[in-house]
Amino acid sequence: MHPILKPALRRGWRDLNTIQFGVAPAHALVLGPVDTATGSFLPLMDGTRGLPLLREEGKRMGLPDEHVDMLVRRLSMAGLLDDATGGGEAADALRERSGAMDRLRPDLASLSLMAPEPGDGMRRLAARRVMRVQVRGAGRVGAVMASVLSGAGVGHVDVMEGGVVEPWDVAPGGLPADAVGDRRDVAARRAVRRAAPDRPPRRVGRGAGDPGEGEAGLSLVIIAPRDGLDAHAPDPVTAEPLISSGTPHLYAGVIEGTGVVGPLVLPGTTACAGCLALGRADRDPTWPRMVAQWRSGRARHVSACDLALSTTVAGLAAAHALAFLDGAATASAGVRWEASVPGFDWHARPVPPHLTCPCGAGVADKGAHFTEAPEPHDTMAG
Q1: Is the pTM above the cut of 0.90?
Q2: What angle do CA 207, 238, 270 make, to 5 degrees?
Q3: What confidence score (pLDDT) does residue 300 get?
Q4: Residue 317: what pLDDT?
Q5: CATH class, range 3-83
Q6: What contacts 193, CB < 8 A, 6 or more positions away?
Q7: 76-102 burial, b if ≥16 CB within 10 A, otherwise e?
Q8: Domain ranges of the chain
Q9: Which residues of the chain have pLDDT under 50?
Q10: CATH for 129-364, options being 2.40.37.10, 3.40.50.720, 3.40.50.2020, 1.20.58.220
């Protein structure tokens, strides 16, 4: 182990005996009391020395081995210490790719804040390289999200979409203007490759999760349709293969100036598209009739999906996806997040499992009770 104080956290002395690690309250911690010798010793934990050398340096400063070991344990338990050589073989292989590591250092620093164990942030970053994510949709939301995931180190990001790139599909970080007229899936995959820090680890043969081989083996499927109705009111039928294969999937999109992220569906555990439809029909008996009309009468005009909102949705959805892939708790499991222009005020709406949905999440969760907030609507009297 080569201890290093987490570089992501700024340090400052609150007084002669107390150090504060971090500025933002979410991750800031205070350490004290700290004597003069210990305070002088702390900068030596910069990742260049192993524990034996640190003990030798401590002795020269009048600090016994027991004191150094206790300090390392204390900082480690507080989540303030990282291991510059930790993370395992996959992490070592990534460190050897200096160009990729330089691109991913900000992501590693962020992961270190969420991973308390020394070396765990690097382990999670390395694990992303072998994960397989499929994004269904290559519009302003889907293509940007796919590029963000690729740029964050997810090794295998595939995009599925039909048709050709239209001028209104173009977005910074997504499909470029010179892709207009090209096949959407081909253009989106080019964008994914451009965003990648390096080539992912080579895969031997065709494996589950390759295009055309179904859902088995995919770490996550993100449904980000260009038509936001399919994210706001997803068709349960299209999600049946994902439910039956046990593939986690996340919805994201924009409809009529409203951004939607979630729910993240963990088949058999959290609410699915069927639960969403059944729950809405329970509250509004006319809902199935309205959805049927909207689906059969697809609008031919360009959707209300401005760049600021679509980029915000893509970023939030990618963040939730990465949290799930990294094994962290994500706030979109069984929850839908919505924000509308011009306020961009995000609201979390729980999506409870439905007892009658064939996905089985309602039966597994029948002991819990959820109440979804009623959706606001205006009634116009003529």
Answers
A1: no
A2: 85
A3: 67
A4: 97
A5: alpha beta
A6: 150
A7: beebbbbbbbbbeebbeebeeeeebbe
A8: 3-83, 89-126, 129-364
A9: 204-213, 368-374, 376-382
A10: 3.40.50.720
